[in-house]
Structures are given as C-alpha cells and as structure tokens.
Amino acid sequence: MITSDETLRIGVYVCHCGSNIAGTVDVEALTKFAEGLPHVALARHYKYMCSDPGQELVKRDIVEFGLNRIVVAACSPNLHEATFRRAAEDAGLNRFLVQIANIREQVAWVTEDRQEALEKAESHLGAAVRRVARHVPLQRQFVRIVPRAMVVGGGIAGIQAALTLAEAGREVILVEREPSIGGHMAMFDKTFPTLDCAACILTPKMTAVKLHPNIKLLTYSTVESVEGSVGNFRIKVKRKPRYIDESLCVGCMQCIDGCAFTRAKFPNAFDQGLGLRKPVWIPFPQAVPPVPVVDPEVCLQIARGKCKQGCVEACGERNAFRFDQQERIEEYEVGAVVVATGFHAFDPSVISYYGYGKYPNVYTSLEVERLLNAGGPTSGKLVLRDGSTPKRVGIIHCVGSRDANYHAYCSRVCCMYALKLAHLVREKTEAEVYNCYIDIRAAGKGFEEFYNRVQNEGVQFVRGKVADITPAAGQGTSAEGGLVMKVDDTLLGSIREINVDMVILAVALEPQADANQVRRTFGISCSAEGFFLEKHPKLAPVNTANDGVLVAGACQGAKDIPDTVAQADAAAAKALALIDAGQIELEPNTAWIEEDICSGCKTCINLCPYQAIRADEERKIAVVDPALCKGCGTCVAACPSGAARQHLFGDEQISEELEGLMNYV
Amino acid sequence: MSENGFKPRIVAFLCNWCSYTASDLAGTSRVKYSPRVRMIRVMCSGRVDPSFVLKAFALGADGVLIAGCHPGDCHYIEQNYKTMRRHAMLRYFLEQMGIQPERLRLVWASAAEGQYLAESIDQFVADVQKLGPLRWSGVWEDPWRREDAFDEIAAEHAEAMEVQA
Q1: How many domains, in total, are found in chain A?
Q2: Most C-beta atoms within 10 A of its C-beta, which of A61, A102, A317, A621?
Q3: Is A649's CB within 8 Å of B43's CB?
C-alpha cells in the first residue's frame, strides 16, 4: 500500500541518453505514464539527465515545486546514482530520497520490441516511484581511519611499498613469513637487462627497512586472521618462535660457530637445498634482521632436551637464547593492507621427460641463481654435482609456462632471465650455451638490446620445444654422465640431438601454494590461474574486491622487478590516499534493530559474517554495530519477528518496489 | 512469445555486486534477452526474504529468479550460502502450497557473466512458459476465488494429496 501521506511530491525524470534510451523506449509515453502515478507532482523527459543542465533541472524543480522525492529513469544506478544524490543534496533535499529506475542497461539495450521495452520501462519506473515514497531521510555516517598500514610479504614488492609508506611519515607493519626479508630477489645473482648485482641494489633497501623508525618489522610471522573493514582492520599475526630474543641478539653469528654440530648437515631452503646449514642458522649473510633462527626439529636442546649448548656459551653475556620461547599472537589495527606475497617457482619434476629430480645435472633456474651467486653454496662457481665445470649447457625456456598441461599463461620473465643466465654461464665458464625457446619475448626497456647482445656473445638459439632429455649413450644416469636434449628445431626443420652436461629449466612463476587460503583471509578474489585478482585490469590495477586491501607484485600476476616496484609504489600511494583521508563514509544501507519488537532469539547473530550483531543480555535484544555492518541484509531477511530492519533496503521499500513492478506490467 | 500466447511475468532479484553488475554488462554488451523479466536490486542475494518470493507469486508473478555471486565469491563473504539454503527450503515449501518448485530458480552469475545471465533468463522464461500461467493474481483477496483456487489446486495435486494406505 502506498503511504497516504499527502505531502509527498515526487519528481520523475526520464532520460533519453541521446538515442541510447530514446531509440528503443518511447520516452514521451513513459513520461505521460509517470504523470498518472500517485504522488507524482511533475514528470519530465530530457536528452541527458546526467549533464549539468539535466542536474540543474532537478535542482531547480526541487526548489521551485517543492519536490521531496526524486526518481530518475536512466542508466544503471551504478553509474549515476551518486550524481543525482549529490544534485538533490545541493538543492537541500536529503540525498537518500532519490531512486533510479534502470531503463538503459536493463531495458533499452537488451530489448528489441519497442512495446515490450515500454512496458518493462513502465514497470521499473512505477516500481521506483512506489519505492521512493517509502524512503526516509538518512544521515551520512563516517568513521575514523586508522592512520597505519600493514604490508604482507617482505620481497621486493613489500619492501618497496613499506619504504614508500614509511617515508611519507606513516606507520607501517611489515610481515614476512621467512626469517629474513628479501624474498626471491635476494636469491638472484644479477638482474636483467642491466646486470646489476641483485644484492647490491636490494640490500640497501633491506637495511633501510630495518633502520626506518616508522617500520615495525615482523619476520618469521604470518597473518592469522583479518577482521573489520576498510579503515579499521584488526589483524592477528602469528609470530613463530626463533628461540632467540631479537632485541638482545647483535648478529655476531658466533652461536653458529659454537653449535654442537661441528659441520652443517641440513639443507638450506634459501639455497634451494644445494647448501647446508646447522640447526642454528641464518638464510644468507645479509639477512634482515641479522638474527639467526633455531630449527626446533633438529636442535638437540629443543628436540631432545640434551645438548652442551655451545651456542649459548658463544652468545655469552648477550644472553639472547630463549629455548622456552612459544608461538604467540599479536594484534594490530591498520587502515589499509598491501598484500605482496609473491610467487612460487614451478616444480618441474612433474614434467617427466625433462628428468628433473632423476638426472642430477638438470637444474631449475633458481638453483642456478644460487650457484652463480657469490654468497651461494659454491661461492659463485658454476659447477656440476661432481664439482667439475660444465662445458656445454642447455637452457630450456617455457618450462611450465605456455603449456596447456601446466600453465597456459606466459610467465613474462623467463625469456629474459634465461638470456641473463646464458650470459652469466658463458661469462663464468666459457661453456657452449644452447637456449631452446618457443618465442623470445623481449618486450621491455632495454630487453631487445640485451637479447641482441647475448646473441652476439655466441649463445646458440634453437627455436623449438625440447621433447626429451636422456642420458648420453653408455654413460648411465651418474653424476658424471652427459645428457642429450632432443629438440625439434623448427627453423632447421629437423629433430636435433644436442649433447650437454648441464640443463637449466627456466621454470614458470605460479601462485604461492597457499594463495587460496591467503585470499580468503583477506577477502579478495583469485583469477582462474590463481593469482590475486585486481578490481579492474586497466583502471584499478592494485585495488581488490575488498576495499582497503591492495595488491602488488607477483602475487597479482607474473612480472619482473621493475614492474613489481612500480606496482608496489602504486599500491603504497593508494594506501596513503586512503589512510590520509582521515575518515571514510559508511555504507548507508546498514541494518538496525527495532528494540521494542526484538525478542532476543539471536537468529541474526550467527548469520552475520562480520560479527556486527551482538546480544545485549541485559535487555534481551540484539544490537547492530553500524561501523561493522556492511549492509547485506541477510539478518533482515531472516528475522522471524521483523525487528531487524535495514536502511534503504527495508521490507517496506522492497515490498513496495515489488508491488510496483507487478502493478504496472 | 510461445505458441499458447502466454506472456509470463517474472521477477528477478539481483544482488548488487555480481548479478546486477552482470545485467549492466549484458546491457553494455547489447545482449538481447526476454523482456518478460522485471528486476529488483538487492545488496545481496541473502537479503531475499522468502516472503518476498511468496509475495511475488501472490501478486501474479509466474516465476521468480534469484541471482547472486558464485559460491566462494560473495561480496559479503558467505551470505549466498544462506540464499542457497533458503532456496532449497522455499522450493519444498512452494510445493506444499501447490506451486511448482520449478517456478523458483537460483542462478549464480558473476559480474563478468552478462551473456550467461541473459541466457539463464531466457532459459527460465522458456521453462516458465512451458509451465503455463500460475493464475494467482488477485486470488487471495477475493474469498470466492480463493475457494475456487483451493479446489483447483486440490484437483491438480489429487494424486499427491491422497493419503498413502
């Protein structure tokens, strides 16, 4: 039933949208129809309602004719609802007394029959008029934004974002899962195409993170849960025990020398398992923080409770060891989050014909990065498993990328890093190098020039996919044995067998194994291949579906270091723009409880995923916190007594809209 | 229009974040689909009170479509699962009331699936057309017609209503 309130004066505006609407919908007939609707004081049609003159028309009419409700039949409310709300507000009308009837996207553009289009437009317009009669003025609500940001992931993306935010004077909490920040970039030897040493350009930034007064660095830590929403996230961080007090350790590393294990015997994950470490260890010499970590699985003191504790003795009066340290949870309040959790290098052992894991001299590119790195397990010497220097090296591109069986996408960086490895292998060993590629993708600043340079250095390029890797005849699969790469050379038009003694697989970049769990924690989406999904591929490349959560780096898609850094700065700038605004407008359509009716049954409480509803045990009613409510209305739909209500999407408004729809068919 | 000349009246509840945006996309992509569907925007498919669906039928709708985000992609985390539960409950309930449960349909359409939403609407309209009109409009206001309607329903469902010996 329409309210009998005689003071209602509804203004209806039908937009032609040039010929977009008027070409299909008879706007004059629609306006005439509107004139006959109850409480409509005035109905007009105009060429472009969203233009300045169109908005002026609405404003003038509000003042001149005392209109107190506005209906605009035009495009989707997603486009211009805000425009007309603002126009109404400018004319002194509450902004929430406006309703849009979608007659472009939902009528004119999708309907062929003009009569049917008019009927549907009438139905949508009639429903909007009936609905707006039930609108009531609302106050806009704002909440304060916590002027602090969290960056999750301490690779180059996270480091860059954290530094940019910190330099702008904002507090930043940087969370890293590993014992040190640095990520994959810290593992690399050189970076393409300039051949800068990765450590030389990265370690100053890592040190800057450690020294910056605005950055709180939480390494060996993971995000457990995220509550709240844009402007006010409450994030629980799990801090794994290092068994060493970070505030007391000075990074002298004498404990490592003092350890009861005189020789390192456990694989160092940072070195891809090629190097060995002790139970007390540090991933690499420039680690930040420069604090060792104790592996509880193999430390005699922790695992068996019995050790002479040479480490503690070496630590001496600094007394930093804490064998009783426990995992603990810390909670932080932040206004914005930058997710920069990086990528995972594809495991090529699933491609059986490449023989990775079977033939010892088949390596992944990341393993070779460690071998080439002066800080790596061989101190920068490229050697085979038996310690000899390779004389012929094969590099296979697109391992796991551009392959329907693994990842259909191009990992974007493999061509360039494979060229870089080819260059470094020749530089260090003078070995013959064969790069087997499908296409060379060198689309970047200085990339093509680098490709030309590597070609001129004598690297052999074979255009074709490697079909098989087998041990050279009569040499078995021993460490000394050579390998044969069978490749269909598409330029030569024949199958070649190339003898090599080392194969490097240029592996794909793929989403982290726990990407799906991380995306659920932060309430963001993944694209089909599993990388985090940006809000818009072109116009919102660092925003996500969850306001206040931004993405940067390879967690959003495979990309190189320059692009990662650019994206990290973009995410930092977005985070800054958000937290510097100081306050944020709440959803207007929040739920509320009519206290007199609420019976305190608590049905609504369990339905709310935001914990926005709590039980007031004293008054035996439910209470909604408008700052936490996101306005989905699920509780409103479930309330058995009708006590749960919703602003703008109340039962009275939706029911009235429904009656309108069915009344004017 | 079908051969029987019946033009079904269908109400679609579209969630703001996925399905309403999908309908916008169908529009901007100029996908043509049946005009027999009237749309209501709700913030979340979880807002669709079962009574709205019943009311739509009572007001003369021949079919009701609810469209929301795909499971796992709800803008409000998990509210579409509640829609799923209500949908199952409602279908059961509709049957008790003598309304074919096929007259209510739940569709998942992401913001990128304008074409899919349009196809789903066309499919639903075609299916409802096959079911024929519900003829419930105004029935409940008029006590005489209500009696007739009860008799009609009883006749239609005589077999199902027979007490099993």
Answers
A1: 4
A2: A102
A3: yes
